[in-house]
Amino acid sequence: MKILLAATNQADRFMDRMAVRPAPIGLAYIAAAVDVERHEMRVLDLMFSEDGAADVERAIRDFAPDLVGLSIRNLDNQSSLNPVWNLPRVKEIVDRIRQSSAAKIVCGGPAFSILPAECLEYVGADMGVVGDGAEAFATLVERLDAGQDCADVPGIALWKDGKVAVSEGRFASAFHNAPRLDLLDMRRYNGSGFGVGVVTKLARAYYPTPDGGPTPDGGFDSEGWRIRDPDDVIGEVRALNADFGIDKIFFIDSGFNIPVDSAKSLCRAIIQSDVEIRWNSYVRPGHGDEELARLMKQSGCSLALMAESGSGGGDLSERLDGIGVMGHLFREAGLPFALNIGFGEPGETVQTVEMKLSLLKQVEPAFAALRVGTRVLPNTAVAGAALDEGLIASESDLIEPVFYIEAGVRDWLADRLKAEAADRPRWNLS
Ligand code: B12
């Protein structure tokens, strides 16, 4: 079979402001799973395209694939002040493919995996893969090539009787095959903000899906974690440096500092190795000590990203204290950190807004992302509130950006935050 894989993400911002272009490593993992002895494959990355749909159309004409895989990273930019919805662009790509090709179109990716049936219906593709896609996609390719049915492949979205159904189960990749970064123009990603992604650990299910993804409300259970061996991680970092001159890495990890011992082991392994990198990652408050902060700094960490989403469970003042403690540890170690903080979630009051603002002033992050309202995602408590209050008719509405702002602060919140951010260039509002 001839297979064209395309990464559709063209967003070049983080929090609607900072220049960040994440390399499509998810698609590179998909490419690594395809048996290229048996199939001819091409990869197209639209990140630097002027006109993505036109580039896909050209590739379809030149290559005439039998199967097109589309990676969909972000539903939108999660900014209530300047919302940008990405799916219409993907739909346009699908429409353009259909005009000149009978290829089967398979979608996947983080955004797709959040509302697979709705995304598939909206963009008008043939099939989709939910969650970790490498093994599932490889299985689909072989089944389609042999003319076999795919309905029993775990985590597959398929049309059935005019509607999309998603099969039970999910693949959980161990990321054994190195991503085919050689098929991407990786040099363009060096210095493109925040670093090139290298997976260090994945949680049980990585997406907020109804079948038990652990993260819909920011929770982080430890079941079924896949923690990569530090030697494998360092091997991948070394290859990025040797092959493409890349020395800025983003460790892909829902919480780099959990468990603390493995975080320390990876830092020590980097320090003892010959690799010289600067790296960034997400960290979670409440886990870590002075030694971890020192090891992170020593191993090249240049930014630790923390988030207060309003849904981490427990009492707000305890959560804010946790962030304060982490911030203090990082400052003592000379390690810059960023804080992404949401405002307006259910239960927000003038008083809780002021508590968050005073934390921000106290911890003084290297940059702060203040989110006006919560981008409602399915299977979350905020989605429950949005349903109860009639903001959405059903969770299917959430393929488009919908923002929840607690009624008690709705008329006041944006102006209050804008006023506070006005003379603080490190505070970004979105
Ligand atoms: C790390 C990360 C970041 C880093 C990226 C750093 C870097 N240089 O790479 C930073 C902090 C910069 C970032 C920014 C943003 N992010 Co982010 N980010 C993540 C995170 C934690 C990991 C993404 C990743 O690399 N995963 C590892 C790779 C290997 O996995 P993958 O891409 O998912 O690919 C797998 C599958 O999806 C699938 N797959 C992928 N492509 C394809 C294609 C086909 C054909 C198939 C079959 C399967 C398939 O198989 C792959 C292998 O298993 C995810 C959380 C998550 N749970 O995924 C959020 C996430 C991707 N981000 C998200 C968002 C929204 C954003 C921002 C818009 C936030 C903002 N407010 O600005 C920006 C967008 C930036 C941009 N320009 O695109 C959302 C996207 C979904 C959504 N809600 O719309 C996620 C899912 C978080 C969430 N739960 O909401 N992000």
List key phrases describing it.
single chain, seven-stranded parallel beta sheet, binds cobalamin, 20% strand, 13 helices, globular, 2 domains, alpha/beta, 34% helix, seven-stranded mixed beta sheet, Rossmann fold, 430 residues, pyruvate-formate lyase- activating enzyme, 20 strands
Overall number of domains: 2
CATH topology of the largest domain: pyruvate-formate lyase- activating enzyme
Global structural class: alpha/beta
Query: What's the story with the biggest beta sheet?
Result: 7 strands, mixed
Q: Tell me what the CATH architecture of the largest domain is.
A: Alpha-Beta Horseshoe
CATH class of the largest domain: Alpha Beta
How much is the radius of gyration in Å? 22 Å
Helical residue percent? 25-40%
Mean pLDDT: 92
Give a list of the ligands. cobalamin
Strand order of the largest sheet: 4-1-5-6-7-8-9
Q: What is the CATH superfamily classification of the largest domain?
A: tm_1862 like domain
How would you sum up the global shape?
globular
**Spans of 5+ residues with little confidence (pLDDT < 50)?**
208-219
- The termini sit apart by 44 Å
Number of helices: 13
Number of strands: 20
